């Protein structure tokens, strides 16, 4: 067996073992992505002898994992939920969609103001727009399971949080892709072309929706396993189309996930199960391992990094806690703080966008390392604070 393949198999076993042990920690549960990041950091140890060829393959696997992670994040967004009417039975007060949109817009504005001040007075050449997007995003993959496990998914508060997280997830992907395209070229036509992936995705989605009523198309696609292969091919196609239009492939994969989630077709539960199994068992762990390995941890040893870490952490919570006060009059102070802390959870998108920003020379490596480290802290503190602050048994009106 080739030595590189052997080491990759060993890393798979190590990543699984570390994630399984930390998930069953007696004090609090450590999310699996953080466990994989720790494995990637351990690979930096000189005793493990990671060769340049090993590192090259690890980064390539990480790129595939990033595409799959964005696809699975898109599958978390229920388009029907965005368009549906309120399910809580109440007809007074603003709807969760309006509240969630207000929260995200306030977060984005407040984040930009803070980052603009930060980049003006801080050393280093950092783009305030990109940095503000890193702070404004929310990890839907963390928020959705927490709301479901605690029974808040159908509650008005849970719906408002979910809407805010969904909008933050999608808009961050779109704005990051547009910002990177604008940074790469000064041609307005090329910048506008980066948005061409949106009508393309809409056209493909409508076309697939029409194909559902054609029996021959269903027979051609086959059963669950065949449709899973077609789904992976759809992800690859959208990634290539996004790259051809000047957009980011991760946005194409994200839109492919939204299309798969929004369509109703035979064997859909099997396709989702296979996709989650392949993604979260193989590709996504390798992305986080690669992120941990490429994370410029040496930058955090400097006195400057130690100075900025608490500033970044304070900003990460402040830009979510303050806008969450729109919930104060309808849900109370305790639940408002709980919502703010939960929406502060950010990891996957921050790790992806920070790496892209460093590659485009839009933020320094030290700041990227600080944002990734702070995102790890928020992913640990956010769900824990929600569990402590939110009532354990929400009352849902099902009239």
UniProtKB/TrEMBL annotation:
Any one Gene Ontology BP term: proton transmembrane transport
Domain of life: Bacteria
Gene Ontology CC, one term: membrane
Major localisation: membrane
Membrane topology per record: Multi-pass membrane protein
Cellular localization per UniProt: Membrane
Every Cation/H+ exchanger transmembrane domain range: 17-384
Entry's Gene Ontology molecular function annotations: antiporter activity
Family: Belongs to the monovalent cation:proton antiporter 2 (CPA2) transporter (TC 2.A.37) family.
Protein name per Swiss-Prot or TrEMBL: Kef-type K+ transport system membrane component KefB
Source species taxonomy: Bacteria, Bacillati, Bacillota, Bacilli, Bacillales
């Amino acid at each position: 067996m080739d030595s590189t393949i052997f080491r990759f198999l060993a890393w798979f076993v190590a990543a699984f073992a570390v994630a399984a042990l930390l998930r069953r920690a007696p004090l609090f549960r450590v999310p699996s992505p953080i466990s994989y990041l720790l494995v990637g950091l351990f690979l930096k140890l000189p005793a493990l002898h990671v060769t340049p060829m090993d590192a090259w393959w690890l980064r390539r696997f990480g790129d595939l994992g990033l595409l799959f992670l964005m696809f699975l994040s898109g599958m978390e967004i229920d388009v029907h939920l965005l368009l549906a009417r309120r399910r809580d039975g109440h007809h007074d007060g603003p709807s969760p969609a309006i509240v969630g949109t207000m929260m995200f817009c306030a977060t984005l504005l407040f984040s930009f103001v803070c980052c603009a001040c930060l980049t003006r007075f801080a050393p280093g050449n950092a783009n305030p727009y990109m940095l503000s997007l890193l702070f404004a995003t929310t990890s839907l993959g963390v928020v959705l399971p927490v709301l479901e496990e605690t029974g808040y998914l159908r509650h008005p508060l849970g719906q408002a949080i979910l809407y805010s997280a969904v909008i933050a997830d999608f808009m961050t992907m779109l704005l990051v892709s547009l910002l990177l395209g604008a940074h790469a070229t000064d041609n307005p036509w090329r910048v506008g072309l980066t948005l061409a992936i949106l009508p393309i995705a809409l056209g493909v989605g409508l076309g697939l929706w029409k194909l559902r009523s054609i029996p021959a198309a269903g027979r051609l696609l086959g059963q669950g396993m065949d449709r899973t292969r077609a789904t992976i091919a759809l992800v690859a196609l959208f990634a290539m189309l996004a790259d051809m239009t000047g957009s980011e492939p991760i946005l194409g994969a994200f839109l492919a996930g939204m299309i798969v989630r929004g369509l109703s077709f035979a064997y859909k539960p099997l396709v989702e199960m296979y996709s989650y199994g392949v993604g979260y068992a193989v590709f996504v762990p390798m992305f986080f391992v690669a992120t941990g390995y490429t994370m410029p941890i040496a930058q955090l040893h400097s006195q400057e990094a130690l100075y900025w870490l608490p500033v970044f952490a304070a900003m990460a919570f402040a830009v979510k806690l303050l806008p969450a006060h729109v919930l104060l009059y309808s849900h109370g102070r305790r639940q408002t703080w709980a919502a703010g802390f939960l929406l502060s959870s950010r990891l996957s998108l921050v790790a992806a966008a920070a790496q892209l920003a460093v590659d485009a020379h839009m933020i320094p490596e030290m700041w990227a390392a600080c944002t990734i480290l702070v995102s790890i802290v928020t992913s640990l503190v956010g769900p824990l604070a929600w569990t402590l602050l939110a009532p354990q048994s929400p009352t849902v009106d099902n009239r």
